[in-house]
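tokens incoming
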């Protein structure tokens, strides 16, 4: 054994305590850290030869890289739907590394059994029917990819071919309909060989991002055969929702696979005031939910649900002598693109076991209250205006006059020490958006963000 590794192994208890103390110090200072640090990112160094050992690596990381890291685990990182990791989720992620399980096969099955238990809890959390089966993937993009891969196989089933076996070209032209599809849907279509141009935009309701159901029915009629509909439960710009019940109802007259992108909007089911927004989601054929958003687990954790796990296995099955065959309950290796992966479910298991439905309901309701409060504060700032009502947890706003991208970028830069906001365009108007999903975020943080905006607007 290399001397550095042997020395670290011999002193592991002391070294892990050193790491724990350092991590605790970082988290204790997170609320007051610059959200986006103003310092420069370090220049890359060459590969070490001998190495510095664990303690030396920790010291080098703290000295060179930590000063450049954003406070994405803190309460005012609002640019993406990122909540940081709750204490239990952080502990679960640490234990994921400790046990280092590859949770995809029943040959070593405890990991995938824990994942199935966790998926069952999440299915109950989101109010989905028993017919939905779920698997963990790395994020919303991977979840949308898997859901649309199953949709592609469903189209093949209708046509008497198997795209997984014969290639996407066996389908001929494919039509995917959506009112305001997320960019990851286009990416998934490109990876699946269906092509970005297969997505046909359907008109949305005036002034909103939700699909016009009458226009969708017209597009389905024009399609003249089976197609795919991607519905939204929480759009990225304004947090808008398609009428999922009405969209699903169109299947009485037209054949289509219904995929719902509920990356963060699926969590509306936890709030009595917002659960109506996801009514009808259980009728979907596939659903994307991103857990490193509002479940507040570390990055790299999302769920993909489908009512057709048989078609999912037809796409992703992996035939190898060292793996179990498909069987009635396929191992997870047969259900997602990865042959091996970490036990992503463990952080979610810890979070759900620690805080349950009520703990996560409180996070959702506090975040939606914070979003409404910031929306009210924006409207009270001279020179700013909301571009859309605050429907859930996203606040989309711009300048009252001259809302050009350059001014908005300057405004975001001016407030970046207090809050991270990202640019967007809604209804052709450049804007900024703030998305609330953090377990640490509260009223005091809203006041700080509002104060930063009031101070910065006159200077831009």
């Amino acid at each position: 054994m290399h001397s550095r590794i042997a020395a670290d192994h011999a002193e592991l208890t002391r070294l892990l305590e050193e790491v724990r103390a350092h991590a605790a110090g970082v988290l204790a200072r997170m609320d007051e850290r610059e959200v986006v640090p103003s310092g420069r990112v370090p220049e890359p160094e060459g590969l070490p030869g001998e190495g510095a050992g664990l303690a030396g690596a920790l010291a080098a990381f703290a000295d060179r890289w930590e000063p450049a890291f954003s406070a994405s685990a803190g309460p005012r990182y609002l640019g993406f739907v990122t909540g940081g990791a709750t204490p239990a989720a952080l502990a679960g992620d640490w234990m994921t590394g400790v046990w280092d399980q590859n949770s995809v096969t029943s040959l070593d099955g405890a990991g995938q059994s824990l994942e199935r238990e966790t998926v069952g809890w999440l299915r109950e959390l989101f109010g989905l029917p028993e017919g939905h089966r779920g698997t963990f993937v790395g994020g919303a993009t991977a979840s949308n990819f898997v859901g649309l891969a199953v949709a592609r196989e469903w189209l093949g089933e209708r046509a008497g071919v198997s795209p997984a076996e014969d290639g996407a070209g066996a389908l001929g032209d494919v039509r995917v309909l959506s009112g305001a599809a997320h960019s990851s849907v286009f990416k998934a279509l490109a990876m699946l060989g269906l092509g970005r141009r297969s997505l046909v935009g359907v008109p949305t309701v005036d002034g909103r991002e939700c699909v016009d159901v009458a226009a969708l029915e017209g597009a389905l009629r024009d399609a003249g055969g089976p197609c795919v509909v991607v519905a939204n439960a929480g759009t990225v710009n304004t947090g808008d929702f398609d009428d999922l019940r009405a969209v699903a109802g169109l299947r009485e007259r037209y054949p289509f696979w219904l995929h719902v992108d509920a990356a963060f909007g699926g969590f509306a089911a936890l709030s009595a005031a917002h659960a109506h927004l996801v009514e009808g989601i259980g009728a979907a054929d596939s659903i994307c939910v991103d857990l490193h958003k509002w479940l507040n687990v570390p990055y790299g954790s999302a769920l993909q649900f489908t009512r057709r796990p048989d078609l999912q296995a037809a796409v992703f099955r992996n035939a190898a002598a060292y793996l179990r065959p498909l069987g009635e309950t396929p191992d997870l290796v047969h259900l997602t693109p990865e042959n091996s992966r970490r036990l992503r479910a463990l952080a979610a298991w810890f979070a759900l076991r620690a805080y349950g439905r009520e703990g996560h309901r409180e996070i959702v309701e506090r975040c939606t209250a914070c979003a409404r409060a910031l929306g009210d504060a924006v409207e009270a700032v001279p020179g700013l205006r909301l571009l859309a009502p605050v429907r859930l947890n996203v606040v989309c706003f711009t300048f009252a006059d001259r809302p050009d991208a350059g001014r908005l970028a300057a405004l975001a830069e001016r407030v970046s020490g207090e809050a991270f906001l990202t640019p967007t365009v809604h209804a052709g108007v450049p804007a900024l958006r703030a998305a609330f999903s953090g377990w640490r975020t509260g009223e005091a943080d809203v006041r700080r963000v509002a104060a930063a905006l009031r101070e910065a607007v006159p200077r831009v």
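note: The radius of gyration is 23 Å.
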